[in-house]
Amino acid sequence: MASGSDETVVTRFAPSPTGFLHIGGARTALFNWLFARHHGGKALLRIEDTDAKRSTQPAIDAILDGLDWLGLDWDEDTVFQSERGSRHVEVAEKLLAAGHAYKCYATTEELEAMREAQRAAKQPLRYDGRWRDRDPSHAPLGAPFVIRLKTPDEGETVIDDRVQGRVTVSNAELDDYILLRADGTPTYMLAVVVDDHDMGVTHVIRGDDHLNNAFRQLPIIRAMNEIEGGWPDPVYAHIPLIHGNDGAKLSKRHGALGVDAYRDEFGILPEALFNYLLRLGWGHGDQEEFTREEAIAAFDLAGVGRSPSRFDMKKLLNMNGNYIRAADDARLAKLVAARLGSQADEALLTEAMPVLKTRAKDINELADGAAFLFKTRPLEMTDKAAELLGPDAKALLRQVSARLHSEQDWTTEALEANLKAYAEELGLGLGKLAQPLRAALTGQTTSPGIFDVLALLGRDESLARIDAQARDPSDAPA
């Protein structure tokens, strides 16, 4: 069956575990996952952990956790590149035996002198092929060597990239790069090609910073296809990188953080980040929000643009707000309770969620908005709230307290009718009544609607909070 047909689509996401799952990596993972799901194929995960000094178990755990949180599942067991070294060596030895690779005995000093001469002549820095056609017997006995790929040095290589279009590179620009180091360990270039082939990968979807690598990796694929057959070229799709909102390369100040930071620090829901990353460089008409099923049905590489996309935290938060309003109240209550700590009551939070979530853009805002429910008396006041509770406001609160003590129907509707009528009797706008009430009940100047606050706190706690703030300082015991 031809590579690239729907029945055989296999994609892979292959992060290096040297840090967190950053936002660009998460989008690459998503695009690979969606493309495979759209075509009814397989999405595979490979951890490229051959850099033993920089790869860490906490980074592997963070990557797996971030992918799981986004809801990206994989179709086979995770492949760890570090466990496949003998297979990488096997392919290098086949290339060597077939004349597609050779032993290079150049010393570190010789290579540095070569580069110095190239710098002086303002030439590109690349290996000059000094051992390409030399007999290994010319090397000193027992001298260390690396194995280099004998890349084609005439003609050109053409890639019909599914995102970038047709890209052509002169083969004279490719150098004979190292496949096996002097200690016998494989290089990234060799390991990636071998693993992609052995995993049956048909479509290599990755950032466009890897486009040059494709031209260096294809000679291995084509040489192995010549040696043993069954090594077809993959379909390439190189996705433009993500930039900051100012057009500069994405950095931490723009939001180049780990997926876990969006969850834990910024309070983003996974479905919101999933949707935002989907739309970051990919489009489908005017549609902005997609369910997971809609995304799978719609996604294809034709919708990926060639220009870098711009990460905009404000847009992500706006989208997150939409998802918060649509989310299940009990689920949100659980997330908020985790932020508020042991004093939080999930049942009360669930009851409060319809009024708490109307304006919140993230879980942190939800938690801040809900905190008043679990405060203990005497309430800690913000400076602005304290300013609203001067002598006149306290006198007004004493009147409101007397009015509310007689209210037996402690529902949002009854409280609203009562206080609106009372404000009218006093000749006050409702805001003049609501402002000191909000400060007394929450210790803040912002909250859900004042009638909702009263109903959620309940009759006894509401009256106790109002009376605590309404007390005339002159009434305090000597």
From TrEMBL:
ATP binds at residue 252. Keywords: Aminoacyl-tRNA synthetase, ATP-binding, Cytoplasm, Ligase, Nucleotide-binding, Protein biosynthesis. The keyword Nucleotide-binding applies. Its EC number is 6.1.1.17. Residues 9-316 form the Glutamyl/glutaminyl-tRNA synthetase class Ib catalytic domain. One of its GO terms (cellular component) is cytosol. One of its GO terms (biological process) is glutamyl-tRNA aminoacylation. It comes from the Bacteria. The keyword Ligase applies. A motif ('KMSKS' region) lies at residues 249-253. GO terms for molecular function: ATP binding; glutamate-tRNA ligase activity; tRNA binding; zinc ion binding. A motif ('HIGH' region) lies at residues 15-25. Gene3D superfamilies: 1.10.10.350, HUPs. Residues 332-468 form the Aminoacyl-tRNA synthetase class I anticodon-binding domain. InterPro entries: aa-tRNA-synth_I_cd-bd, aa-tRNA-synth_I_codon-bd_sub2, aa-tRNA-synth_I_CS, aa_tRNA-synth_I_cd-bd_sf, Glu-tRNA-ligase_bac/mito, Glu/Gln-tRNA-synth, Glu/Gln-tRNA-synth_Ib_cat-dom, GluQ/Sye. It is an enzyme of class 6 (ligase). It catalyses: tRNA(Glu) + L-glutamate + ATP = L-glutamyl-tRNA(Glu) + AMP + diphosphate. It is found in: Cytoplasm. Monomer. Catalyzes the attachment of glutamate to tRNA(Glu) in a two-step reaction: glutamate is first activated by ATP to form Glu-AMP and then transferred to the acceptor end of tRNA(Glu). Belongs to the class-I aminoacyl-tRNA synthetase family. Glutamate--tRNA ligase type 1 subfamily. This is Glutamate--tRNA ligase. It comes from Croceibacterium soli.
